[in-house]
Amino acid sequence: MNSNTMFMSPEESARIQATVCDRLKQRKDQQDRPREQKDAKALVEQAVSESLMQDISSAAFGFGVSRKTKETMPAYGIGAPYLPCIKTLGDLEPMKLKDLRMEIHHKGLFLSLRRISPVAILEASSWAVVQDTSSDHVERIELFLHKSQHGCDILDTASEFIVKEPYYTINNHGESTIQVNHPSDILITEISDSPESWRQEKRGKSSFEPLSAEAYKEKGNHALLERNDCPLSHFYYTRGLKLLSDSKSDETLRNDLYRNRSFVNLRLQRFDEAKSDALSSITYDQKGGLESLNAKAYNRAGLAAYGQGEFLQARGYFEQQRELQPEDQHVALHLRRIDARLREATEGVYNMSRIVSSLMKAGGRPDVASFDGSTEIKSSPGAGRGLFTTRDISPNEIIMCEKAFCVAWSHESETFSALVCDTREDTAIKVFPAGLHKAVVQKLLNNPSQVERILGLQGDYKGIGQKLIELDEVPVIDTFQIHDIVQCNAFGLGQQTEDEDISNASTGLWVRASYINHSCIPNAKKDLIGDLILFRATRRIASGEEITHAYDGSTSYEARQAAFRRTWNFECRCPLCLVQMDESDTLRLMRNEAEERANMFVENNDPTCAKCDLVPWVTAAPLPDPSRPIHAHTEKIFAPDQVHLYVIRKDYYIGGRRIRAAIAIPDKLALINHRLGTWQCILKRQDANAKEHTTAGFDVPPPYTSPISPTQANKPSLFKALKSSFRSKPDPLVSALCHAAMRGDEQQVSGLISQGANVHGRNDDGNTPLKCAILNDQAGTSRLLLSMGATTNKVPPLFKAAAMGSLNVCKMLLDSGENVNELSKAGEPYFVEVVNKGNMAGIRFLLNNGARAEASTLAGGSILAQAVKKDQIDIVQALLEHGADVNSHDVHGNSVLNIAIQNGNAKLVSLLLERGAQTQPATILCTTILEYTINKKRLDILRQLVAAGVDLGLTDAQNQPVLIKVIRNPFLKKDDKLEVMRMLMDNGADYDAIDITFGLPAICHAVETASPEIVEELLIRGAETKVRMLGGQTMLTYSIDVNHRNHVKSLLSYGVDVNEVDGLNRTPLMLAMLRLDFNMAKLFMDYGADAMADVNESAVKFIKALKRRDFLEILGLNGEPRLHQVRGLPQVRDSPTTSPSTIEEHAPDVPPPSYEVAAGKA
């Protein structure tokens, strides 16, 4: 069953629609009613209860609830959009909670609120209790859908905030609330310092101790370096900047704050402000020796521009950095990366193999540029705007490539789909990519420069228009307008993982691709590589013609039209739809039956043995000109009553040929039902005399869709057979001349030429007489033919003979004065072509006779690098023996040693090292020699390099420790990973290495991703154990959260503190008790856990409420002393009956209850 299909019963559909309609009626009935006073204590207790249940559930099941499935998708109604506030805070008047009125958007007013409860975070919303800053009135506030920013819940982040033009309404659960749908309508005025800050007493402005800009800088630095809290540090840096004036005295501090905030903005992907801050921090007075700080600013501005796809601008900033830091290698790497992006953007040349190999590392977002190609956006009659070509496009040519503006992948936690009931369309229920909607809004808030690109796309609700509005330093985003834009323009990416279904489907938004309109007979088709979308022409497209692709691939006219109306709100009027609209029921039935037969044939039959009315179709058959109309082919070749339509269902690859199964449908008008790329029209003529079928196809498959196996080269080529069938028969004299040349009969060659034989003619194999002579190493006939004016195409005869290994001919030509270092017209030595052919005898002959072994290709790479890349070890050895530079590079700057390591050729590596190849750790790919070998899983090469004393490079080009990369490498087996780690640490790698991105030591990465043996190896070498994981957990509490029990035992065995409290105020014993894990709790008690610690009080109460006698005994809380000995720490107790080593334990009387039963008892 299709995982992207959801089946809903009519009763369930009706229930959702009825709920939405009832809620609308309820809101309408209560419109303009005054707000009712609420019980503050009861409301806060409700919030505490919901938040606490989430915490207990997280603790019991290991942080995080199970993802939503298509059986439990959230549902909500939409259909009453309203504009966000488009006034500054200074233009609004304050109001009180008591003045709120139901179903009113309080225009021109704002609320100042303080949060007085924890936040209850739901799938599509979050809510909390708030209070007036100047009264005791309380109310519920709810952020719907757009509730998080930078991975943190907005309400949970803020302690005080302002709501502009508040909307008081009834939520989806029937509760009155202040609902915020537009993120720009809420302004945070005070950050929450801790999860318990809501419990603090009401504070007035006078209670705050005023801080200086320097103090805010220190607080921001602490939040960034100690807590890794980028949003909090951004808040403090911004506060500090607001306190500074434009005076000269504040310039240094102001520049520091701008520079630091630029770094934070880069990590938060706020590229607009990152670039602005970096440029604002530049000091043009160089007297103070501030070149390094200015270089850092230009670097951050360049990274921000690169992140926005502004590559020319980025290059300018990096060139400024290079002027200040000419020795910095990273600048050169950035500039090379930018040059690659500019080539992609201007020429459309992509390294597809590199892109595909980088998908996993890049999280499905490869580092590439968009290529607009020869296209332009302009008005499309009857379809708004469309994308048109500005020149002729050939079949299979790439029209355009585009990086996604935003993609939500199924494996990402924020991705989910929702059932949306749209009351604007008679309560129609749609599955909507809510996760993508949130991501698009978040990216626009972070980068206002992109807003107008998105607002220019098609959407039913026009909202605030297409111009950017910024108020109170925040871009105004109408989320209802973005909803409609995503609904109309987003693409599905297809199933990416096994557990992906409609509830978390991967979706994306591409801006330029969104302008491509639909046609059931398209001229383009799309492909996806990660978040890069490619459109390829399926036929010739004339200049000025509109580009189209199929939005829906259904063969049913009714199904297609229903999909168009439901999702895109249009009716297709293409020629195919016009014909199918007038078709009879009988004809549609015939088509459906034919399609079913085709499906059965594909499933049950071998495509090589088609029978009856099933005809195989081969791509190598002669194809008509695709630029001419379909009818032009049919009327010229066949009579109308002999035309049939073949429905094509599947491709097969047999012997390198693509074969499609087809079934005939007797329909004279069916030629219009021709859909390139999905269907294939085949014209069939019944020849009464020959009784044969003649077929002709109209589409040309892409070049990459016909893979050729390595063994296919030795098989007969269908292309060559067809080519030879079109070649005219050779002249008998030329055939005789070729035979004489092969035999070396100079007298017969001379006689045939005197009789008029053409020295440039070709025999049955397509070879000239001179080529025949060279192939057979006939020096005499070769000399004679050359003297008669015979020539070789492109390559001079000497190099042609050397490439074929004809040494006698080579000697003859060399004696006649040929130059072994002759250059082509383009300036490339012909010797390069001989090396490419790989004939060892010919290469050695030329080298022994003076050919330059250090020659370079036209592109600039050495021929040695070329031979190394092809693993031609004999040729490499010969080139090195004749003076080739062992440290030469290829056209991309890779050294020959790096190339050999990339290819995993141990023999070549050994040869190059023996010849003195230099080993620079940093490579052109911004990696190290060590990373090459590890990623290739070639530990034999790594041992070879270590034995040779090679500097492995213990950090990469970005100073990231390679040890951590090895620990996190998912492709290395456990034993290999251990061996590499030991090799690194034996050669100086720090076992306490810290990654530069998150500040986590190696032991934390091992606990998170590796096996217990890896963790133990680091512990044995003395790794620091008093460290914190990224979420604030200790290694013990993290291991419990993710159920790594083996790690728990290893950590305890090497002295990790069992009583350490993590950043979430938890101990290992507390988690064991909350999870009702008796064995784990006993293990912690054996290692000295303190059950009476204050932090464990709530968990102990939980155990007591359950009356778990087995737990109470091991905790020593049953009224009797529990005698035990902490492992490794001998204890002496004053007891007349028990020795110091006695352990008194009790097995539980009954098995521990399940969590559900325990929670019910509690």
Task: Describe this structure as you would to a colleague.
Keywords: ANK repeat, TPR repeat. This is SET domain-containing protein. Residues 373-552 form the SET domain. The protein contains 44 helices and 32 strands. The protein is an alpha+beta fold and 1162 residues long. Among the domains are: 30-72 and 83-208, Nucleic acid-binding proteins (OB fold (Dihydrolipoamide Acetyltransferase, E2P), Beta Barrel); 210-347, Alpha Horseshoe (Serine Threonine Protein Phosphatase 5, Tetratricopeptide repeat), CATH 1.25.40.10; 587-721, no CATH class; 1067-1161, no CATH class. Helix 9 (311-324) packs antiparallel against helix 10 (329-347).
Low-confidence stretches: 59-67, 203-208, 607-727, 921-926, 1120-1162
Instruction: Report the major sheet.
Output: 10 strands, mixed
Strand content: 5-15%
Q: What's the Cα radius of gyration? A: 37 Å
Arithmetic mean of pLDDT: 78
Name the CATH class of the domain at 30-72 and 83-208.
Mainly Beta
CATH architecture of the domain at 30-72 and 83-208: Beta Barrel
Q: Which fold name is given in CATH as the topology of the domain at 30-72 and 83-208?
A: OB fold (Dihydrolipoamide Acetyltransferase, E2P)
The percentage helix is 25-40%
Shape: globular
β-strand number: 32
The total of helices stands at 44
Key phrases:
1162 residues; alpha+beta; OB fold (Dihydrolipoamide Acetyltransferase, E2P); Serine Threonine Protein Phosphatase 5, Tetratricopeptide repeat; ten-stranded mixed beta sheet; three-stranded mixed beta sheet; 44 helices; 39% helix; globular
